[in-house]
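Project standup — Tuesday

K.O.: blocked on the structure for the chain from last sprint. Re-posting the sequence here as requested.
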Amino acid sequence: MNLGNLIKVAINALKRNKMRSFLTMLGIIIGVASVITMLAIGQGSRKSIQDQIASMGSNMLFVMPGNMRMGGVQQGSSVSQRLTVKDVDAIEMECEAVTAVSPEVRSSGQAVYGNSNWPTTIYGGNEHYLEIKSWKVVSGRNITDTEAKSSAKVCLVGRTVADELFGEGVDPTGETVRFKNIPFRIIGVLGEKGQNSFGQDQDDVIIAPYTTVQKRILAQTHIQSVQMSARSAEESALAQSQVEEVLRRTHKLREDEDNDFEIRSQEELSTTMTSVTEILTILLGAIAGISLLVGGIGIMNIMYVSVTERTREIGLRMSIGGRSVDILLQFLIESILLSVFGGLIGILVGFGASSIVEALTSWPISVMWGSVILSFAVCTVIGVFFGWYPARRASGLDPIDALRFE
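H.V.: unblocked you, prediction finished:
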């Protein structure tokens, strides 16, 4: 019997038990749809995190104060006052791989305008701060070098702060807000950036000259961190080594002493977050893949039932000249058809489920064509693997015993 006839016989056999065939395929359908949807969620999350990190500046580096020891006791980084504006000047002058550098100081408190108030965070930086942080000014202007050095009481506000204090869509440029009883004239409004990968609202900020925040709000002379941009993401490592060399010299550290500062880059953060999301994606795919295995076991079970029900038919075919290989191929093709049809329907359901999840939850979704191809390939393998043994059992029946079977 040729392959075309075998496929026709297999299709007719499946048509005779439509409901049973559909229920058998259901396990494969659910498995394939689950794999596609879960991997789409994982891949979408990964892409979203990468985009958010990129929006913060893919070539950004920052220096934080390191842990300090006093009297043999680890004091932690919060008590360190080792970072100063002199460090910023040294980095700017000596580190060729760094294109922009800014001090950073910050404080939390209430921003007040008229009868409205809003809890937020004020960040202090210089004229390069927005460039380093990849912030755009959509209304007004940036802080100038003169304002940064003269402790001018000016600021830029994020969209969230503007909306909460002045109302949706209002341009507050030129207005005055108070932060910890210090009046700040708004000279610009920042473009929207949304939440970062940690769920923090990046638009809930006020940015002012670092000297103003230092002297008028924090009453301190040291800075809390140094923010920098490397010439490119590829030169982040070079910039990091240059900054370390400069800071060790300005902090007068001996060769046997550890750094009293920590240098981090967005590249490190991106690598870490990507690794985490990859592990979660693999985990989600593995969990969903279990349902494919269950679907394969269901196919094996139904094929066993089918072989038992059609034992007399098998005996009759073999008694009139049917070959064992024809019987094996007939049942194997039935198993493969169940898997392939189930896989095709599962792919459609997977795309539909991914779209529904995205619409209902606003969760970022990115369907991976690799997962679609892999799922379909696995379906075919499952059809062969779980259909082989029942088909082999059918082809090995003795014709006389098969005809006597009740």
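K.O.: great, moving the ticket to review. The chain has a mean pLDDT of 82. Residues 335 and 383 are 5 Å apart (CA to CA).
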